[in-house]
Amino acid sequence: MNVVGSCLVCPGAVRALGTRPGGDYAVCSSCGTVQLATLPSPEALEQAYREGYRQSGHWCGDAEVDARRRANVDRALADLIVGLHPPDDPRFVVEIGAGWGSLGSELVKREIPYQGIEPSADMAEYARSKGLDVHSGFLHEVSLPSAIRTFVLVAVYEHLLDQEELLREMAARLDPEDGAILILSPTPGIPRLVGRLLSALRPRRPLPEMFSMLAPPWHTCLTSPQGLRLQAERNGLSVELVRPAPSGRDGGLRSVLQRAADVVARGGHGIFGERWPLVLSHLFVLRARP
Fold it and tell me: What is the pLDDT of residues 92-120, one digit of tens each?
């Protein structure tokens, strides 16, 4: 595979992995991260979100359907968030990319102080109509609670052009004693494995989307567990937990495949740890380094 650029995460070189409609992907030979070979400019990406994201089919446009699909994931995340801090902790959980507010509703149900931030005005308005404290905008534009125990990012990290900029912003606002950052993000094990196989068998054919993991220009960087550790260390954080994330439930055959993928991910991770590639998404918990 030809070198096509530099890794966004580590000093390694990235080599061509394959093409998707809308962009080519490359894989880092050092940390294993998969990223767009050519990144859009911030201005071009912002325009793409503004003009084409709603019609792209990349996200669920029905709030109630989305909540049903995500119900098992939201429960698992809420359980994890509850376990990160003592019971009755009065500090806030802040979700970046709150979407329609399904996780926020699950947390509020458990009487956890919650604030959401959502760039989409329509989604933020819907979440507010459900009684949630969700602000439209970006982290640097929103007034945050003075006491934050956990930042949460679900299916957000892979969309960022500068992941470490957001890590730095969150780290600066966290309680340095026990604040936490929870990230759920697709990771590159399966795209890397399938991409390398297909490049040998059918080099001129486009890559499959693989459960929407490869989705240019929206998914700019699928950071590997090794890569995320490097990012955390550079920003005064440490990775406390890495484990396969549960998949949503889309219904029909796709739901059967998602359940099977969860079993394979948990089983392989239990034996081989982070080296196991057959994981759609990982859960990460980061904390400030002592």
Answer: 999 999 999 999 999 999 999 999 999 88
Q: What is the β-pairing status of strands 148-154 and 180-186? A: parallel
Q: Say if pTM beats, i.e. exceeds, 0.90.
A: yes
Asked whether 99 and 130 are in contact (CB, 8 A), the reply is no
What are the CA-CA distances from residue 139 to residues 170, 223, 236 (Å)?
9, 21, 19
Cα separation of 263 and 199, whole Å?
27
